[in-house]
Amino acid sequence: MNCPSCGREVSASDVNCPGCGASVSSGSPGAATGAPRTGAPMTYRFDRSRWSSTDLVSGVATLVLFIALFLPWFGVSLGVIGLTVSGLTAHGYLYVVLILCIVELGYLAVIAGMPEIRSRIPVPHELLLTVINAINLVIVLIAFLDKGASGIGWRFGAFVGLIAAVVAALPKVAISLSGRVRRR
Hints:
By secondary structure, the chain is mainly α. The protein has 2 domains: 41 residues, no CATH class; 136 residues. It has 5 helices and 3 strands, in the order αββαααβα. A hairpin with a 2-residue loop joins β1 and β2. The longest helix is centred in the C-terminal third of the chain and has 28 residues. 29% of the residues are buried. About 5% of the residues have low confidence.
């Protein structure tokens, strides 16, 4: 059963949601099925407490990764002249990372304001964020290692992007792996 207010999973014996404190007794509409109330219109009310700590870490790291895509990733110095390029300029496939960052940040913003959306998405929350962040990490790692011809060096944007991709992926991957270990 899911909380009708924040969408978090609650046990049948809980009277109040451990996440937001809303009543989840069997008398409240939609509590038995976890479905959102159908009569009330969906309204957006941002509440950061609807994010878990790993959601917050992944979200901030994803925002940093998004910004890092526009920073200088590679460069070459020819005496007094230097040329740098951003990750998006150097590797067009990093636009996939850009799009996935926008999707993840948008999703986190939506569930912070409209938690009932969570129950309408067919993929579990943790799995969705784990897959997005793992794909981002693999693509960023490939872009980091593919710096091109000799003489071209990494710039700070590449390091910031790689660190942000690792930080965004690790909490979600760790939770996914720990869930699998517990089930065995």
